[in-house]
């Protein structure tokens, strides 16, 4: 009896499998799907960048537009958080590049595996920069800022529309850290980090450099989504 | 090994496995294409695996079970029969028995059907099935045993077949 059922199952599954189309056809369709998606993402990113670069820092020609702020900005934007216009990465940096250059004192090397170990990760745009929130009178003190983000996508560790994390100051870092990142209100980044003093992911959150925080790119965002799944 | 080499070597078995797992033509084509698209996008990672075929088989099984969890679809016994318009050469009794088996299979949980497909179609041993599904070997054996018992269950079905 048992052998009869097992034989029936084998024959039935084989009959189902025989209905499959040619694997080359399926694979070709799969490759086309990937290329279509990449073209669509590249077109969207290129169009957005062209608008930003062509129109200037805040990308508007409205008569009542807030004048561009001096570099690096360390005050909050007067615009509502959700209206913060996107800005391109600084000169010399490409989408997907890490914010730091010349890493020193890095705890671990950036990779998909180490990214997945981060407590929080998100895609967000800077809406405010202010005094650091996670400091505890450590010596020597680190030059940090509290950076508020409008979150577009949480990859892990959070769920709110906004989040504030400490990051190295945009204009300069202390001598023991990697070179200072360059960001301002409107910079869109992929950010990952850990709770500075332990505990829940967003308890005194601090963004990591060393490649774990990068200028936004659609392809990299898709990779982060996969790595943190 | 390039992606093209992988498809040439293992593509057929993977696409056919997708059809055996899903039991639904439309779902099977979409499943196979989606998994191969993921393989193509992440080819460096797949190529670096100790056993790329097993790695992709696990991707396929995970995707199949994930899809089934999200959208429960009732398997229809006739979905995968050839649509050639030519009368099937099988004896009527064999066709009826196969349809009956499909009906019984449609009542199994997705994981149970997956174990049966991997065992009786893909000819994997319990260790390989466990690796593909991310479960223990004992769980594979228990699932298979329960699934076969439920397929053997209705004694009247066999009795009717015996007396025709």
Automatic annotation (TrEMBL), chain A:
Top-level taxon in the UniProt lineage: Bacteria
Region called Disordered, residue ranges: 63-100
Transmembrane feature ranges: 40-60
Keyword annotations from UniProtKB, A to Z: Membrane, Transmembrane, Transmembrane helix
Biased segments, Low complexity type: 72-98
Stated name of the protein: Uncharacterized protein
Record lineage: Bacteria, Bacillati, Actinomycetota, Actinomycetes, Micromonosporales
UniProtKB/TrEMBL annotation, chain B:
Annotated RNA polymerase sigma factor 70 region 4 type domain residues: 99-151
Domain of life: Bacteria
Annotated keywords: DNA-binding, Sigma factor, Transcription, Transcription regulation
RNA polymerase sigma-70 region domain residues: 7-72
Gene3D superfamilies, per database record: 1.10.1740.10, Winged helix-like DNA-binding domain superfamily/Winged helix DNA-binding domain (1.10.10.10)
InterPro entries reported in the protein's UniProt record: RNA_pol_sigma-70-like, RNA_pol_sigma-70_dom, RNA_pol_sigma-E_actinobac, RNA_pol_sigma70_r2, RNA_pol_sigma70_r4_t2, RNA_pol_sigma_r2, RNA_pol_sigma_r3/r4-like, WH-like_DNA-bd_sf
SUPFAM superfamilies membership: Sigma2 domain of RNA polymerase sigma factors, Sigma3 and sigma4 domains of RNA polymerase sigma factors
Family: Belongs to the sigma-70 factor family. ECF subfamily.
Protein name: SigE family RNA polymerase sigma factor
Naturally occurring in which organism (per UniProt): Paractinoplanes bogorensis
């Amino acid at each position: 009896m048992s052998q009869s059922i097992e034989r029936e199952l084998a024959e039935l599954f084989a009959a189902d499998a025989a209905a499959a189309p040619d694997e080359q056809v399926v694979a070709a369709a799969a490759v086309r799907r990937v290329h279509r998606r990449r073209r669509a993402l590249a077109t969207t990113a290129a169009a957005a960048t062209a608008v930003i670069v062509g129109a200037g820092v805040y990308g508007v020609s409205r008569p009542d537009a807030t004048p561009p702020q001096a570099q690096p900005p360390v005050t909050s934007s007067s615009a509502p958080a959700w209206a913060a216009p996107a800005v391109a990465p600084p000169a010399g940096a490409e989408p997907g590049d890490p914010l730091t250059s010349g890493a020193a004192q890095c705890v671990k090397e950036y990779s998909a595996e180490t990214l997945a170990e981060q407590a929080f990760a998100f895609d967000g745009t800077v809406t405010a920069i202010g005094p650091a929130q996670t400091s505890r009178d450590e010596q020597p003190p680190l030059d940090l800022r509290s950076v508020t983000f409008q979150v577009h996508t949480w990859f892990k560790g959070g769920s709110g529309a906004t989040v504030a994390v400490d990051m190295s100051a945009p204009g300069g870092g202390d001598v023991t850290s990697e070179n200072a990142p360059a960001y301002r209100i409107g910079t869109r980044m992929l950010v990952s980090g850990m709770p500075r003093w332990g505990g829940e992911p967003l308890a005194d959150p601090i963004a990591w450099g060393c490649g774990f925080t990068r200028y936004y790119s659609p392809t990299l965002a898709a990779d982060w989504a996969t790595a943190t799944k | 090994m390039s992606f093209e080499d992988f498809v040439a070597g293992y593509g057929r078995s993977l696409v056919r496995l997708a059809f055996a797992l899903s039991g639904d033509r439309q779902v099977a084509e979409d499943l196979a294409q989606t998994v191969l698209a993921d393989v193509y996008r992440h080819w460096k990672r797949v190529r670096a695996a100790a056993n790329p075929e097993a790695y992709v088989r696990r991707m396929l099984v995970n995707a199949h079970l994930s899809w089934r969890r999200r959208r429960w679809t009732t398997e229809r016994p006739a979905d995968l029969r050839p649509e050639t318009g030519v009368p099937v050469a099988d004896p009527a009794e064999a066709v009826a028995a196969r349809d009956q088996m499909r009906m019984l299979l449609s009542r199994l949980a997705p994981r149970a059907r997956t174990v049966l497909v991997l065992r009786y179609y893909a000819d994997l041993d319990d260790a390989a099935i466990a690796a593909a599904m991310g479960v223990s070997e004992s769980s594979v054996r228990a699932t298979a045993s329960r699934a076969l018992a439920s397929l053997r269950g209705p004694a009247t079905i066999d009795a009717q077949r015996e007396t025709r």
